[in-house]
Design a protein that fits this description.
alpha/beta, Rossmann fold, four-stranded parallel sheet, EC 2.7.11.33, EC 2.7.4.28
Length: 279
């Protein structure tokens, strides 16, 4: 298949993320690849739950309609079903098979045929794991922003940070994706008067992980919530971040900055730290 000429300057390239399930994996992996081309504009669309050949043909027609003389759409697929995947591969777009191309290799190594189970990754294929994730989400919601300090002994992890550093989304991500029971505790004005941990989490220092930011970024985030306030002022956020950093250092609490990291990247750093002996 011949490729069209490069697109006109500024014209976005369509990128489709296809999946037989939720599309989380296709979107994540596809965006990782697209992220290697920071100067190229993309228009992305996720199409989940492609479970029949008929639906696959409808998707192919839609994707092919996006192909022009100057734009070649990209297609990232994690569809497991062989018949559906075969139908999708009939597209005139550039098809990147994120599933089937690697599945054959694993089958050869294991000498076992794959189940081609759509729900085995993000669905409820593993009922026990699914229930653990839901319980973890409930725990994270109950213990968000220190709404409850009960059952902290059951926590796998306690995130601590000054306000608006990203505790809540990180907690929810780790609960939903990893099934971890995560509490998060905000550091407030009185907590910065000493380098001691706040009393409710003091017995659980070994479970704590700190989040920081940069003064400029934290001031910007707080300013969107309370513009012109002392809470969002640069001197205030600088003071809080310095005191938090001193607290982490005193208690040997590992930390990560949310200033330039995605939730996924922060979660990976936290999980690595836990695997290195803090679980």
């Amino acid at each position: 298949m011949s490729l069209p000429p490069p697109p006109a300057s500024g014209e976005p390239t369509p990128a489709f993320f296809l999946a037989g399930g939720t599309g989380i994996s296709a979107e994540t992996l596809g965006n990782m690849i697209l992220g290697q081309f920071p100067g190229v504009p993309f228009h992305t669309r996720k199409i989940p739950f492609i479970t029949t050949v008929e639906r696959a043909r409808e998707v192919v027609a839609m994707m092919d309609a996006a192909r022009t003389g100057s734009v070649q759409p990209l297609v990232f697929s994690t569809v497991a079903d062989e018949a559906v995947r075969s139908a999708l591969q009939q597209t005139e777009c550039a098809f990147i098979d994120l599933f089937g191309s690697h599945l054959d290799t694993v089958e050869r190594v294991l000498h076992v045929n794959a189940a081609h189970n759509v729900g085995s990754v993000h669905g409820v294929g593993d009922q026990g794991r699914y229930e653990a994730r839901m319980k973890a989400v409930d725990y994270a919601m109950e213990h968000d922003d220190a709404q409850s300090v009960k059952a902290l002994d059951q926590a796998d992890l306690i995130l601590i940070a000054p306000s608006r550093c990203g505790k809540t989304p990180t907690s929810m991500y780790l609960a939903l994706q990893q099934g971890l029971k995560v509490a998060n505790y905000p550091l407030v004005e009185e907590d910065f008067e000493s380098s001691e941990l706040p009393a409710p989490i003091r017995p659980y220092a070994g479970k704590c992980f700190g989040i920081l930011s940069t003064p400029a970024r934290l001031s910007q985030v707080r300013g969107e919530r309370r513009p012109g306030s002392r809470y969002a002022s640069l001197p205030q956020v600088t003071y809080e971040l310095r005191r938090a950093e001193a607290m982490y250092a005193m208690h040997r609490i590992p930390s990560v900055s949310s200033a330039s990291m995605s939730v996924e990247e922060m979660a990976a750093v936290i999980l690595q730290s836990m695997d290195n002996g803090r679980r």
